[in-house]
Specification:
The complex is a heterodimer of chains A (14) and B (257). By secondary structure, chain A is an all-beta fold. Chain A is built from no helices and 2 strands. Classes of the chains: A mainly beta (14), B mainly beta (257). At the A-B interface, β1 and β2 of A face β10 and β20 of B.
Chain lengths: 14, 257
């Protein structure tokens, strides 16, 4: 099955 | 003092239509270079990034940088009050807690203004690194919208597979499976109808259809859409807004659990 990742796990907070 | 004027309210209506399904509210950051908005959708799966350059406006004045938090539902109510051919001016005083939208008819005989309360929004800004993508696909925006709509009937997820031969969109579920293949066009009458693929390495990624469908609400802004993909990083779906800027959507991929 597939898991949806979040966008925050790819881009860091500034 | 902040003041930005667009000749036609249509463009602002289209921009709002392109973001309001994903975002309930957003902060418009205004500086002398233009207006920017960056916000994640409620579930933090996608990110919307809007850039409107100051030189694309009919008039643009921004004495001090201001951030205006707006409820997009309220903004939509106000923009409904504008005719498409009205001129729209967005105005705010420095440190104001309201913003004013002024609409003027082409003959200047009707002038309306609507004041809206601003919101203080806790916004997380994400740094988006410059990336060389393995595949960049350009295609007609209406075609992309059609494919997303069609394939969403079959599954919650869509596979996008890009090779140098073309790009393939696939979905499979209880009903069966669907595949749409687009080859690079060899020659077209209109540039907007072209499909072009720049590929360094083939890429296959899986994405949630409902977000892709939400992004296609931006189709009226541009005849073409650009999809940028690399393995294991978010997809970028970009619509250019002629002479004004662009809207980019970043979508986190689905991965094998």
């Amino acid at each position: 099955s597939e898991k949806q990742t979040t966008i925050g796990s790819y881009f860091s907070k500034v | 003092m902040f003041e930005a004027r667009l000749i036609s309210a249509t463009i602002l209506k289209k921009i709002l239509d392109a973001i309001k399904d994903l975002l309930n509210e957003g902060t418009f950051d205004c500086s002398d270079s233009g207006i920017q908005l960056q916000a994640m959708d409620n579930s933090h799966v996608s990110l919307v990034s809007l850039t409107l350059r100051s030189d694309g406006f009919d008039k643009f004045r921004c004495d001090r940088n201001i951030s205006m938090g707006m409820n997009l539902g309220s903004m939509a109510k106000i923009l409904k009050c504008a005719n498409n051919d009205d001129t729209v001016t967005i105005k705010a005083q420095d440190n104001a807690d309201t913003v004013t939208f002024m609409f003027e008819s082409p003959n200047h005989e009707k002038v309306s203004d609507y004041e809206m309360k601003l919101m203080n929004l806790d916004q997380e800004h994400l740094g988006i690194p410059e990336t060389d993508y393995s595949c960049v696909v350009r295609m007609p925006s209406m075609e992309f919208a059609r494919i997303c709509r069609d394939l969403a009937q079959f599954s919650e997820s869509m596979l996008i597979c890009c090779t140098k031969e073309g790009v393939k969109f696939s979905a499979s579920g209880d009903v069966g499976s669907a595949n749409v293949k687009l080859a690079q066009t060899s020659s077209v009458d209109k540039e907007e109808e072209a499909v072009s693929i720049e590929m360094q390495e083939p890429v296959t990624l899986t994405f949630a259809c409902r977000y892709l469908n939400a992004f296609t609400k931006a189709s009226p802004l541009s005849g073409q859409v650009q999809l940028s993909m690399s393995a294991d990083v978010p997809l970028v779906v970009e619509y250019r807004i002629q002479d004004l800027g662009h809207i980019r959507y970043y979508l986190a991929p689905k991965i094998e659990d």
